[in-house]
């Protein structure tokens, strides 16, 4: 009931309200989220105000009616990887667990702007994975067929079909790895990364979730194998349940809990070019290496590729990695050579030992874990939040995240999309 | 680009090396009983601290020796490098 | 059109060399030494573009790298180059440039309608609307927004330019050739240090080019010229102009882009356009100077409003007047320098100084020159749309809140000076924790993190005397540490005008009833009200403000906007600036050509290409090649009009019937020596190795520690302590590293050495029932009978004078041999084999036939050993020793791996014996089941069985062991195929393996 009332009173974002507010000089817009001081106790505390944490809090409130929730964020919300990614949203996975989980997320993506009343600019512009050999075409067939059998859209493109969609790719003779074709997921695309964080934050806040920024967790209270609360830079806070959503910082918090998690923290860089008029409509990935690109609404080419290749929490990388990434970029889209690189940044990735995430309970009662997203965290934001909220609320995983268990490393039910094993730094 | 001192060859740029992760992982001895838990810990658990990290590198485009590097994972500062058989 | 705004004399341009150029289709002229910006201003052109969001008219704001406005499309040598800054582009004969982001043209731009609707487009407006109906965002709204955004246009064709890289080490890298850069470089050079001095502009000297100072008995400019020419003559010094150090990376690696031909009409074929320098410096002296801050007032983006320092630069360097009725709006003494410069050139400026009653040398000089100065005055708003026509000015109260006596005065430009912001980017990139300096209202470098030392105004030192003194000292001190040499240099005396304090005021309040846009970020159209809105809505962290409003995210990266943005946030939030903190500085300092970053690794050279010694022979014999990693391998040898299917079938059939030869040079080869070699193999491979006799080969499988198959191959015992290991082509490097890892780190007690010998050997696999005949003729002296050289036997031979290693191993399932000779002899061997094999109908075969042969034999390869399968999955459990321990063994007991219905490789044959099953299909029980349709497993490899003359595939399916004989479906929904199949044994040909032993 209280939920409903809050809903009604929340200021609505719409063209009508935008015009109305324009006439009063935009003085009447409400805060998107408040800035509360922490209460002494919550039903659930989510540590980490990134995309996954904010989404988890939102779905706890919306799907499970649990609103006595706090999000504890060390810095500012949305400042981690949700604000540092290349905005790609897709579900083109081979393993059933990954495919079905991500496709569930795609449904959430499609209605996210309307549901959150915040335009997250989800654009199903399609993703094309280029293949440069028959062997790769076969590997893509394996993935694409798996997608189709899981009810996910996928199209195998031959060279000519690729050329029609992205004629600016290198179809010349002077090419090291000619394009043979590609695998396309037409319903994949991009979304406005910051908008996702802010949209979830605003709705979660409106349903009673406390978003507490600039609050660092310094310790946990565990009693008799049961979680009791946390110690923070803003004091101790009690909680019945606590969810960790801290991606690359998981190990730091796990250490406070004497837990060890099969993830390593690595550095991934991305960069954008100066904005140019529209030239590339799709998201495209290079098959003879590791490079992906899309053009933002602003006109910047948004590009990324390999990890820097050694454990790092630095959020800053080195140029040779970008040189390597951009070399593959030019090999794929030669026109990139004529652009300038405007901005680079780095994010720290929670690389799991099989490349797939972990959403599970832990051996500590009331403590739940959400991590291991590698560089695929952004697209998973809604599905991760939804299933993590379910796992916390029901104290058991949903069938969508049952495969993302911690104990799969013991049982051998690994989800290795790339077949690279535990060398997390090889991307 | 990191500047790494190979204990055998001297200071070289990072592109001569390849990374090998946590140097403190100890493989259980061959032909000895090891519990499931200990084995899985060996295979899947790595130290991943923010700060000082003892890690392996191999000088693949040089002497091909594996060696240890003590490096800060937040600043990338390298404190020292050690031969494979040296301990901190 | 004549250069109406060019002074008759003065400036550093070469007036003897007139240059004609074109802008927006009109012809203009300028001089050598001009930038496109200075030449356009000389011609009275101030309208160059339109802003990003509101399409407001844009002119010039700066004179260099900080320029937020003047982005043009440059046409050079038939190539159209987007987003070129007119303030950085040097003029050359025939230069052509166009305005961007406007339609139909810069004068009349339809997009400017946004400006009149701007109240509907505040910061973040797009988050609040365009949500209904759902599909409209992607289909309707977004395409319009995309079209309106972006600046220049890029064509899809290849870049014709050349870019190079250079790697350099030095003792001191000095970034910037202003007074601090010159002094420190000079001192270091005198001490014998290896110095690189980098200047971003074409001219050396930095602020000395425009300041009225004297050093020793020379003008600042003369002093700079003398120092530079001396530095240039020194062998230990590299001096580079047009070179921007844009990134400070780990361990004192800096990267610099040198513009070699950007300023020339056309690049010679082999001259690079730009060169990227990776510089590892022992010490880095950052002398990058400072950038003037704007003052914020109404319509402060109107063309004609520009930085006062830029106006001075146009005057002193280019002899160009940015206006003839200049208004100088300043909160400090710097604006007076510009005013005086105007006055000296016969132009009467008006100075508005926000300060009440400043007293300093330069203010007094301005007064004595009878310059019209109004104290406690501000510009309220610029008037004019495409160019400043006048300005509303007002007196401002002492508390800087009230405006009075508003009047309109005529002017054609407004030169603003809001004091100076040190350029701390490189220091900050190094990791330096910058700190806020209240005296100058800006961040300055703090404690060094790496070996960076910041000098001069980049450090907040604004007097020349102190700059020179400290820079000489630092240059000397740091170089002495390296060279152990110290030369005596006396710091020259300096004459400069002393400045007094600036006014902390930076933003003019709005007059009653007016709603002027006051811009902070000039390119992205971020105004004061946008930032206020963001704060009101709760976007309070500076990063939130930046992201919500896009402040500082334009191509000038906020060089002129960031600090004012911070001031505003701190004012509204009632905090001090250091509490707000600045956003992170990241490389590059200024946008860098992607072509330059990549260099020469483009086109065919984007990755290395490895070729076997027999490559030329393959080429001559119509081989169609396939990429195998970076190797090129013959896929098939095309005869006539054959396609791949026909050709590979012919080749495979010939192997089964006669004899074929395949180039196997690419296989990884590792030479293993030492008394413990057998023990190593025994630990690395899953099967037993201790009893392998000399002269025998064995097939082995190696695992990762997680139990997954890593690689397979044969290893041969050449002599007592010497083994020859082969790996797959793909895993060669990984396997070597893997062996080294265990030998050096895990089992250092093993006395074994390993070394790659892949490139030492050329290999030819001779396979087929007639292969023994060929071998016999190749090695007439050798006993090649089944007894003399049995299956898995090894022998050395003499191939017409060439040493050869002969292995009787088979991948095809036929009687087969692999002959290895030293690489140089590879072609000789190959030709001999072809020559001798002729009578036995030998044919070369490529990788496609090789695959066919192995698939129908049920030999697993890369498509099954895909990094996800254990030995059992590949029917390799027979090779897994139960007795001994080996790498990865302990993992094989995981519950998923020993499950009774564990996946296993099987053969798949279509029921119609006609329809090929696409690789990557899935095996399902019910082809019509609703989605998600449960999968039993996937088809890993397919071929046309030449033995049975029908399609055959391998698949890895759940409970494969018990599925033999089942009738199921292979589905490839991507290809709309559902094929009824029968599951059979994976060994489709010669299941007992008799042929290889015959």
Rg value of chain A: 22 Å
Strand order of the largest sheet of chain B: 3-4-5-6
Low-confidence stretches of chain A: 1-8
Strand proportion of chain B, as a percent range, falls in 35-45%
Radius of gyration of chain B: 14 Å
Number of helices of chain A: 12
Largest interface: A-C, 120 and 112 residues
- Quaternary assembly: heterotrimer
Distance between the termini of chain B: 25 Å
Q: Helix/strand/pairing class of chain B, anyone?
A: mainly beta
Please give the count of helices of chain B: 1
Under CATH, the topology of chain B can be stated as Folate-binding fold
Q: How many individual domains of chain B?
A: 1
| Biggest beta sheet summary of chain A | 8 strands, mixed
Poorly predicted sequence stretches spanning 5 or more consecutive residues of chain B: none
Q: Major beta sheet of chain B, specifics?
A: 4 strands, antiparallel
Describe this protein with a few key phrases.
heterotrimer, A: 427 residues, alpha/beta, eight-stranded mixed sheet, 12 helices, C: 998 residues, alpha+beta, Ubiquitin-like (UB roll), FAD/NAD(P)-binding domain, 6 domains, seven-stranded mixed sheet, six-stranded mixed sheet, 23 helices, 51 strands, elongated
Summarize this structure briefly:
The complex is a heterotrimer of chains A (427), B (88) and C (998). Chain A is of the alpha/beta class.
Structural overview:
The complex is a heterotrimer of chains A (427), B (88) and C (998). In chain A, a hairpin with a 5-residue loop joins strand 14 (291-295) and strand 15. In chain A, the strands form three sheets. In chain A, strands 1, 2, 8, 9, 10, 11, 17 and 18 form an eight-stranded mixed β-sheet that branches. Chain A is an alpha/beta fold and 427 residues long. Chain A has helices at 2-9, 15-23, 51-64, 96-110, 112-116, 134-149, 159-165, 193-206, 250-256, 319-332, 381-394, 408-411; strands at residues 41-47, 69-72, 88-89, 127-131, 155-158, 181-185, 189-190, 210-212, 217-223, 226-232, 235-244, 263-273, 283-286, 291-295, 301-311, 340-352, 358-361, 367-371. Chain A is 30% helix and 26% strand. The radius of gyration of chain B is 14 Å and the shape is globular. Chain B has one domain (3-25, 36-83): Folate-binding superfamily (Folate-binding fold), CATH 3.30.2270. The longest helix of chain B has 9 residues, at 36-44. With 88 residues, chain B is mostly beta strands. Chain C is built from 23 helices and 51 strands. In chain C, strands 8, 9, 12, 13, 14, 15 and 28 form a seven-stranded mixed β-sheet that branches. In chain C, strands 42-43-44-41-35-45 form a six-stranded mixed β-sheet, with helices on both faces. Chain C has a six-stranded antiparallel β-barrel with strand order 46-49-48-47-50-51. In chain C, helix 7 (308-318) packs parallel to helix 8, helix 8 runs parallel beside helix 9 and helix 12 crosses helix 14. Chain C is elongated and about 115 Å long. At the A-C interface, helix 2, helix 4, helix 6, helix 8 and helix 10 of A face strand 6, helix 3, helix 4, helix 12 and helix 13 of C. Strand 16 (340-352) of chain A pairs antiparallel with strand 32 of chain C.
């Amino acid at each position: 009931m209280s939920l409903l009332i809050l809903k009604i009173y929340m200021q609505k974002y719409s063209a009508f309200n935008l015009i109305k507010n324009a006439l009063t000089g935009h003085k009447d817009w409400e805060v998107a989220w408040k800035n509360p001081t922490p209460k002494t106790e919550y039903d659930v505390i989510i540590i980490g105000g990134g995309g996954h944490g904010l989404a988890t809090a939102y779905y706890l409130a919306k799907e499970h009616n649990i609103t006595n929730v706090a999000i504890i964020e060390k810095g500012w919300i949305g400042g981690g990887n949700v604000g540092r990614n290349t905005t790609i949203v897709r579900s083109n996975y081979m393993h059933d667990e990954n495919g079905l989980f991500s496709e569930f997320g795609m449904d959430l993506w499609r209605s996210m702007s309307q549901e959150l009343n915040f335009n997250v600019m989800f654009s199903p512009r399609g993703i094309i994975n280029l293949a440069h050999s028959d062997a790769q075409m076969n590997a893509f067939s394996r993935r694409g067929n798996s997608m189709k059998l899981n009810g996910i859209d996928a199209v195998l493109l031959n060279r000519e079909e690729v050329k029609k969609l992205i004629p600016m790719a290198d179809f010349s003779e002077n090419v090291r790895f000619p394009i043979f074709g590609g695998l396309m997921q037409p319903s994949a695309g991009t979304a406005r990364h910051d908008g996702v964080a802010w949209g979830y934050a605003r709705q979660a806040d409106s349903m009673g979730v406390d978003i507490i920024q600039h609050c660092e967790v310094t310790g946990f209270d565990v009693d008799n194998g049961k979680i009791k609360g946390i110690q923070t830079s803003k004091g101790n806070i009690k909680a019945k349940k606590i969810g960790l959503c801290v991606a690359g910082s998981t190990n730091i918090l796990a250490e406070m809990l004497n837990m060890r998690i099969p993830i390593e923290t690595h550095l991934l860089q991305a960069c954008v070019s100066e904005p140019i008029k529209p030239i590339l409509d799709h998201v495209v990935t290079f098959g003879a290496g590791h490079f992906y690109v899309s053009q933002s609404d602003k006109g910047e080419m948004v590009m990324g590729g390999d990890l820097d290749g050694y454990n790092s929490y630095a959020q800053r990388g080195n140029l040779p990695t970008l040189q390597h990434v951009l070399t593959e970029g030019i090999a794929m889209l030669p026109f990139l050579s004529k652009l300038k690189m405007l901005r680079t940044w780095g994010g720290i990735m929670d690389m799991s030992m099989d490349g797939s995430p972990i959403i599970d309970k832990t051996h500590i009662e009331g403590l739940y874990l959400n991590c291991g997203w590698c560089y695929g965290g952004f697209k998973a934001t809604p599905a991760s939040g939804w299933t993590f909220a379910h796992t916390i609320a029901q104290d058991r995983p949903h069938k969508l995240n049952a495969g993302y268990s911690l104990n799969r490393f013991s049982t051998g039910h690994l989800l290795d999309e790339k077949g690279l094993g535990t060398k997390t730094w090889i991307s | 680009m990191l500047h790494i001192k190979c204990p055998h060859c001297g200071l070289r740029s990072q592109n001569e090396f390849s990374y090998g992760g946590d140097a403190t992982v100890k493989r259980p001895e061959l032909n000895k009983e090891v519990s499931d838990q200990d084995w899985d810990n060996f295979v899947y658990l790595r130290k991943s601290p923010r700060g000082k990290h003892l890690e392996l590198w191999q000088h693949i485009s040089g002497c091909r020796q594996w060696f240890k590097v003590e490096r800060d994972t937040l600043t990338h500062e390298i404190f020292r490098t050690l031969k494979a058989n040296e301990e901190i | 059109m004549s250069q109406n705004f060019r002074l008759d004399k003065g400036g550093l341009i070469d007036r003897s060399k007139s240059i004609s150029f074109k802008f927006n289709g009109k012809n203009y002229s300028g001089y050598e030494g001009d930038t496109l910006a200075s030449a356009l201003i000389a011609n009275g052109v101030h309208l160059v573009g339109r802003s990003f969001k509101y399409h407001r008219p844009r002119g010039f704001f700066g004179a260099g790298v900080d320029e937020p406005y003047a982005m043009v499309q440059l046409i050079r040598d038939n190539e159209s180059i987007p987003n070129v800054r007119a303030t950085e582009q040097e003029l050359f004969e025939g230069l052509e440039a166009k305005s961007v982001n406007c339609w139909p043209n810069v004068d009349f731009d339809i997009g400017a309608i946004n400006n009149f609707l701007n109240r509907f487009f505040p910061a973040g407006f797009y988050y609040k609307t365009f949500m209904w109906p759902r599909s409209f965002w992607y289909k309707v709204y977004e395409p319009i927004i995309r079209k309106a955004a972006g600046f220049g246009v890029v064509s899809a064709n290849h870049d014709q330019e050349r870019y190079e890289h250079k790697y350099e080490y030095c003792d001191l890298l000095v970034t910037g050739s202003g007074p601090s850069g010159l002094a420190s470089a000079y001192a270091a050079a005198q001490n014998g240090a290896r110095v690189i001095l980098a200047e971003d502009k074409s001219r050396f000297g930095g602020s000395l080019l425009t300041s009225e100072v004297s050093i020793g008995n020379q003008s600042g400019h003369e002093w700079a010229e003398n120092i530079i020419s001396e530095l240039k003559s020194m062998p230990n010094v590299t001096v580079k102009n047009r070179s921007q150090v844009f990134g400070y990376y780990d361990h004192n690696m800096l990267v610099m882009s040198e513009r070699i031909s950007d300023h020339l009409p056309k690049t010679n074929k082999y001259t690079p356009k730009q060169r990227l320098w990776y510089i590892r410096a022992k010490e880095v002296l950052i002398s990058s100077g400072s950038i003037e801050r704007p003052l914020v007032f109404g319509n402060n983006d109107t063309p004609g409003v520009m930085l006062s320092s830029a106006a001075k630069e146009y005057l002193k360097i280019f002899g160009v007047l940015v206006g003839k009725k200049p208004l100088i709006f300043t909160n400090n003494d710097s604006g007076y320098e510009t005013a005086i410069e105007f006055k000296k050139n016969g132009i009467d400026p008006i100075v508005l100084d926000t300060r009440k009653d400043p007293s300093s040398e330069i203010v007094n000089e301005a007064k004595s020159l009878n310059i019209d100065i109004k104290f406690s005055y501000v510009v309220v708003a610029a008037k004019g749309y495409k160019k400043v026509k006048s300005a509303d000015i007002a007196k401002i109260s002492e508390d800087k809140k009230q405006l009075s006596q508003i009047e309109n005065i005529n002017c054609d430009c407004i030169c603003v000076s809001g004091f100076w912001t040190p350029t701390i980017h490189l220091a900050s990139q190094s990791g330096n924790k910058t700190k806020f300096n209240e005296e100058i209202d800006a961040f300055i470098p703090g404690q060094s993190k790496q070996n960076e030392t910041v000098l001069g105004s980049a450090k907040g030192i604004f007097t020349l005397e102190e700059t020179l003194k400290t820079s000489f000292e630092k240059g000397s001190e740091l170089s002495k540490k390296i060279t152990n040499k110290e030369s005596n240099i006396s710091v020259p005396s300096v004459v400069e005008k002393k400045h007094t304090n600036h006014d902390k005021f930076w933003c003019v309040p709005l007059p009653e009833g007016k709603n002027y846009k006051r811009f902070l970020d000039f390119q992205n159209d971020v105004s004061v009200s946008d930032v206020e809105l963001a704060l009101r809505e709760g976007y309070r962290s500076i990063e939130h403000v930046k992201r919500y409003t896009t402040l500082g995210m334009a191509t000038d990266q906020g060089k002129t906007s960031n600090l004012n943005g911070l001031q505003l946030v701190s004012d509204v939030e009632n905090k001090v600036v250091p509490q707000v903190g600045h956003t992170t500085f990241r490389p590059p300092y200024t946008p860098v050509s992607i072509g330059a970053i990549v260099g020469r690794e483009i086109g065919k050279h984007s990755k290395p290409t490895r070729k076997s010694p027999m490559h030329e022979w393959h080429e001559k014999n119509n081989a169609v090649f396939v990429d195998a990693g970076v190797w090129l391998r013959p896929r098939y040898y095309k005869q006539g009009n054959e396609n791949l299917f026909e050709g590979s079938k012919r080749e495979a059939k010939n192997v089964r019937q006669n004899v074929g030869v395949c180039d196997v040079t690419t296989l990884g080869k590792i030479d293993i020596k030492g008394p413990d070699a057998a023990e190593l193999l025994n630990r690395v491979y899953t099967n037993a190795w201790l009893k392998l006799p000399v002269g025998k080969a064995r097939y082995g499988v190696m695992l990762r520690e997680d139990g997954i198959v890593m690689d397979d191959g044969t290893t041969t015992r050449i002599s007592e302590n010497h083994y020859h290991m082969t790996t797959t082509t793909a895993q060669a490097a990984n396997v070597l590293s893997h062996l080294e890892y265990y030998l050096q780190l895990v089992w250092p007690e093993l006395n074994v050495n390993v070394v790659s010998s892949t490139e030492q050997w050329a290999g030819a696999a001779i396979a087929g029932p007639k292969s023994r005949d060929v071998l016999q003729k190749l090695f007439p002296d050798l006993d090649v009978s089944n007894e003399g050289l049995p299956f898995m036997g090894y022998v050395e031979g003499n191939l017409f004078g060439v040493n050869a290693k002969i292995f009787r191993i088979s991948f095809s399932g036929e009687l087969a041999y692999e002959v290895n000779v030293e690489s140089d002899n590879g072609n000789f061997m190959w030709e001999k084999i072809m020559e001798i094999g002729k009578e036995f109908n030998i044919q070369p075969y490529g990788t496609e036939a090789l695959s066919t042969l192995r698939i129908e034999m049920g030999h697993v390869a890369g498509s099954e050993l895909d990094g996800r399968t254990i030995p059992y999955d590949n029917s390799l459990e027979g090779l897994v020793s139960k007795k001994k321990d080996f790498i990865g063994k302990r993992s094989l007991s995981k519950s998923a791996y020993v499950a009774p219905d564990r996946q296993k490789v099987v053969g798949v044959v279509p029921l119609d014996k006609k329809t090929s099953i696409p690789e990557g299909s899935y095996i399902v029980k019910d082809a019509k089941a609703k989605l998600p349709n449960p999968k039993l497993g996937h088809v890993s490899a397919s071929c046309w069985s030449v033995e049975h003359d029908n399609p055959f595939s391998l698949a890895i399916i759940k409970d494969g062991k018990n599925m033999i004989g089942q009738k199921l479906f292979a589905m490839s929904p991507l290809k709309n195929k559902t094929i009824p199949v029968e599951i059979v044994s994976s060994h489709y040909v010669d299941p007992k393996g008799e042929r290889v032993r015959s």
